[in-house]
Amino acid sequence: QVHLVESGGGLVQPGGSLKLSCVASGFPFRDYHMSWYRQFPGKEREIVASIRNSGYKTNYEDSINGRFTISRDNTNNTLFLQMDNLQPEDTATYYCAARRNWISLVVDYWGQGTQVTVSS
Predict the structure, then answer these.
(1) How many CA atoms within 13 Å lie on the side-chain side of 89?
(2) Less crowded by CB within 10 Å, the N or C end of the chain?
(3) Are 12 and 18 in contact (CB under 8 A)?
(4) What is the pLDDT of residues 25-42, one digit of tens each?
(5) Looking at the DSSP assignment, which residues form a beta bridge with residue 78?
């Protein structure tokens, strides 16, 4: 059975940092490209960052402006998102996602999400 379990969300002040983790099981993690998405209340999920299965290529949504870093540990089947200089507009539920096709963005597996709240 496939599981993607996110952790690391919480409440942080503007300018602060959080590191999200996503532990995968039940599928060959090293064969899948991974992404972080976020969803604002009442809005569609939007992609934040992606990393190829090898870990050697990453993409980021333009508004991130270098504040987030996606990485992965294929030995321990874990995906990470280091988020620095967080701002209130980053408040959302963050999801990890796995897909086989880098180009199509069709997601095969979703995590359950972790809430990130940026507020003073």
Answers:
(1) 3
(2) N
(3) yes
(4) 999 999 999 999 999 989
(5) 23, 73
